[in-house]
């Protein structure tokens, strides 16, 4: 089990994982690339020695509070999550600058929330799939007309009118939604102006095939909004981080 420890004196964080006490293999730059030397390490011991005599406390990670600006599979990303000691809530930044570095944890003063930025249709994926599935192929004019109609449908959509797709997205800031029955009816009705006869039937089938889990899903993107509270001790977030920041000083 992962365990989060905070030093109350230094505001330092340590994440105890099952890997702390395993030896680490490091490439020796003076030797051939095949040669690795093993380093015995005990990070927890280092942390305890460093913070000897300080007041330590256990923190509990708040479930589902993880956010990150990069895909889950990206190893060198910055993420944020929340944890609590039962009384206070802490916002913790988890990051790694290089792939071979250990993860670092830092308490930041302030808070974060997710802000909805845009909803878009999956342009390229729809075009590709139309070309692949509809035979004989549609003309470019028909394809463009369909994409234009589909985009028009969601131009001024309220995200709350859409149903979120339960499957996990590979990116933490991208969430997929499916179109509502009302939009579906509107879409089919308008498709009758673009397609006739067998072509209409083909596009109708296409829409039914892809509306729930395919290319017709709408992609909503979010942004991490950090609200940084001024702290005299140290700066909370490095300037290089491409996140939108909002400074709130002395807000009640
Ligand atoms: Zn300490």
Give the topology.
Blueprint: E1 3-7, E2 12-16, E3 24-27, E4 36-39, H1 43-50, E5 56-61, E6 67-68, E7 78-84, E8 89-95, E9 104-108, E10 110-121, H2 123-133, H3 140-153, E11 163-164, E12 174-178, H4 181-194, H5 197-210, E13 218-229, E14 244-248
Parallel strand pairs: 13-14
Antiparallel strand pairs: 1-2, 1-5, 3-4, 5-7, 6-7, 7-8, 8-9, 10-13, 11-12, 12-13
Helix pairs in contact: 3-4, 4-5
The structure holds zinc ion (ZN).
Q: C-alpha Rg, in Å? A: 25 Å
- Mean pLDDT across all amino acids: 83
Low-pLDDT runs of 5+ residues are: 31-37, 234-242, 244-252
Q: What form results from the Cα inertia axes? A: elongated
Q: What molecules are bound to this protein?
A: zinc ion
Number of strands: 14
Beta strand %: 25-35%
**Biggest pleated-sheet summary:** 7 strands, antiparallel
The number of helical runs is 5
The H/E string reads EEEEHEEEEEEHHEEHHEE
Could you describe the 3D structure shown?
The chain is of the alpha+beta class. The protein is built from five helices and 14 strands. The protein has helices at 43-50, 123-133, 140-153, 181-194, 197-210; strands spanning 3-7, 12-16, 24-27, 36-39, 56-61, 67-68, 78-84, 89-95, 104-108, 110-121, 163-164, 174-178, 218-229, 244-248. The strands form three sheets. Strands 1, 2, 5, 6, 7, 8 and 9 form a seven-stranded antiparallel beta sheet that branches. Strands 10, 11, 12, 13 and 14 form a five-stranded mixed beta sheet that branches. Strands 3-4 form a two-stranded antiparallel ribbon. Strand 8 (89-95) and strand 9 form a beta hairpin. Helix 3 (140-153) runs antiparallel to helix 4 and helix 4 (181-194) runs antiparallel to helix 5. The longest helix has 14 residues, at 140-153. The chain is elongated and about 80 Å long. Mean pLDDT is 83; it is low at 31-37, 234-242 and 244-252. The structure holds zinc ion. Zinc ion (ZN) binds at residues 7, 9-10, 12, 51, 54.
